[in-house]
Design goal:
257 residues; Purple Acid Phosphatase, chain A, domain 2; 6-stranded mixed beta sheet; 7 helices
């Protein structure tokens, strides 16, 4: 099992949600934690430090990628010349690989200072990830972790502006190299879509676009509760929502996949 968190936005965190996630990690047989970007609200040192301390407290292997909030907004000089310095001080490389008993996880940095909200995938990234997918163990679920989603539903007000440039090209390539799914945040809303059916990628298996809500921030989308995803070794996805009265995350049985 993988715990999929996103959009932590440290600087706007809820202590009750953090405590509930720690308890969940103690009670469940998790292999790792994945955070698909927006670790901080304003890319400040203390926010990165607090995020690092929280993830270390879960006592599990974890993989993180940057989000558009993880590069400076108001410090223009740093934004232009060293946008990822603070991220790298605490979390090292922007793109890492984590292999667990049942999963092969590939982190992808989709954030660019010029395309910080929409995101961008380069041709070099497409090729490198193709190679990583092809050498991944055949018996493991192969997932890519990036901040921006590769699909947004018709009712999303921003449409493709929330999807990274060259994302469709990347999907067409990665789906032929064994990709099983992608983990995202950015929209602060839980959802699962089969990109193979939506984009007709030609793969002989589902390619899931797995969206996570905000796990601990009070910056909620349209009043939705805090939430996270759990991905199982058979690629099933379950959404958990924070119950304010019980002060714990509970399974959304209606939308379990």
């Amino acid at each position: 099992m993988i715990l999929h968190l996103s959009d932590l936005h440290f600087g706007t965190e809820k202590m009750a949600c953090m405590a509930a996630i720690r308890l969940f990690c103690q009670q469940q047989p998790l292999e790792a934690v994945v955070v698909s970007g927006d670790l901080t609200q304003r890319a400040r040192y203390k926010q990165f430090y607090d995020c690092k301390q929280f993830l270390e407290s879960l006592n599990l292997p974890y993989l993180v990628v940057p989000g558009n909030h993880d590069i400076p907004l108001y410090h223009v000089w740093n934004r232009i010349f060293s946008p990822f310095t603070r991220y790298e001080i605490f979390f090292g490389h922007r793109e890492t690989v984590l292999e667990t008993e049942h999963f092969y996880l590939i982190g992808v940095n989709s954030i660019r200072r010029r395309y910080h909200t929409r995101g961008h995938i380069s041709l070099e990234q497409i090729q490198q990830i193709d190679q990583s997918l092809m050498i991944a163990p055949a018996d493991k679920i192969k997932l890519i972790v990036a901040h921006q989603p590769f699909y947004t539903p018709p009712n999303n007000p921003h449409g493709i502006k929330d999807c990274p440039m060259l994302g469709r090209m990347a999907l067409e390539s990665w789906s032929q190299s064994g990709l099983d799914g992608l983990l995202h945040g950015h929209l602060h809303q839980s959802a699962v879509y089969d990109l193979n059916q939506i984009y007709h990628l030609g793969a002989n298996h589902p390619v899931l676009d797995i969206h996570a809500g905000t796990a601990i921030s009070y910056r909620l989308h349209r009043g939705l509760p805090n939430s996270f995803n759990v991905i199982y070794p058979n690629a099933d996805v379950q959404h958990y929502y924070f119950d304010e009265q019980r002060k714990e995350f509970v399974l959304d049985e209606k939308n379990a996949n």
